Amino acid sequence: MTAQHTAAAAGGTLDEQRQLVRKARVELLQRHRGGQEGGTEPPIRVMARIVEDLQRECAERGFDPAATRLEIVNRTIGDVNVRLITECEGEEGGSGDYRMLGDELGIALPGEDIGGYTASGTCYRWLRGQMLDAERQLLAVGYDPRIYDIHGVGNPVLRDWLAADMREWGLEATAQQVALGLGATDCIDNVLRGLAHLAQRHGEPVGAMLFPAPGFNIPELQGASYGYRLHPVQTRAEDDFKLTDTLLARHLEEHPDVTAIYLTVTNNPTTFAYSPAELSAFQQVVERFVAQGRRLHVIADLAYVGTGVPEEDRARMRALTSRPKTAGAMIYANSFSKTHTLTGERFGWVVFGDAAFARAMGSSWTNSVGSLPGEWQLRFMAYHRLFRQNPHLLEKIRELYRLRRSRLRRQLERFDAEHGLFERIYLDDDATIYNWSKLRPGEDCFSVLEKTGLAGIPGSTFGYSDDYVRFSVGILPVETE
């Protein structure tokens, strides 16, 4: 049955059903605005709850699901759900058939239907065979993933592979400088715990943690739990929302208790990436303060390095890893979550710029999970082999992101022409899975949702102004009408 026929059965054409959903959307948001004074719920949860309430109310009223799907679009969540991919650009089964990604990544079950494409399950089975081979390889070098690992940093074979990846970016790392974690967020938590523990062992204060805003805010919550004073730094739109070397130097001079800097190399939410020249200037400031004896560490979050143009990402990383005098201060947090669309797998790792410092941080891993899951490590190894053997998959993922970002910009421009919502719809640095835009005076996330059906996240979520909004292209395709 077509969407048009379904709508008629439910009471009216699809267009008429969409009008009913729009009316319900306005009614619920007006009720929400009337009751939101004094609320303490985080903005991201508020938006997620509103979307759920809207969808539930539309279902209770018996509206056509197709109409609801078109008129209430959750763009708060950043994760890509390959099971919801519908885009097929060009010939079915060709390189532009993005529905195949779930099958090509071994996520789709054999015979599973994804947007009309039936998965073969070939990679799904291949990954399991690779896990078997990986376990034999580990046993051959004396590492049994099925027993307790007293060091808790993961098996040496996989760590060596990841160190080799880092060497391609210019850092001469070894397996001893790599520690595995259940995603980059888990790794950052371990790092902050470890830094705080080392400070306390030496009778020193934990210090403050510098956060450029707007930025990913989970490390702020982690830092606060380990006793860091949180030190947010507001960046400027004219600097593309980046922490400039001048701004960094001023804050380090004025706040001598800053001992850690959190830096997202390609930014969530703004979608802007640091240039090699900007990163070199940043490193020069760090080098100057380290030379003065300052206890200082930079946690470089690389979550979106890999979503952009490969040559540009390599240049960024070489600029970030090319100053030996700052090696001991550098900590690189990596993940397969966004760059490889494997959020649920929780594949993450951290690389320390200095081997001696890596050893000192080891207790933070030992005292957290104690021992990393054996089956998880085997799957991590299987995926690493998959991407090494099939680099075209990463380009296909980047192309999907690029397609969705361009479609979303066009959609926002169309809504802006109709409703006058945005002061500026920012272009991105051809990276990430987001759009960051500035609203006109009088508009906010709620008015945008009321008028367009798009649910975004307000800038206050990222320590910035609610004059800005972030939309994700991750979990849902962008509808073209």
UniProtKB/TrEMBL annotation:
Protein name per the record: Pyridoxal phosphate-dependent aminotransferase
GO term, biological process aspect, one: amino acid metabolic process
Sample GO molecular function, one term: transaminase activity
CDD domains: AAT_like
Keyword Coiled coil: no
Keyword terms of this UniProt record: Aminotransferase, Pyridoxal phosphate, Transferase
Location of the Aminotransferase class I/classII large domain: 158-473
Entry keyword Nucleus: no
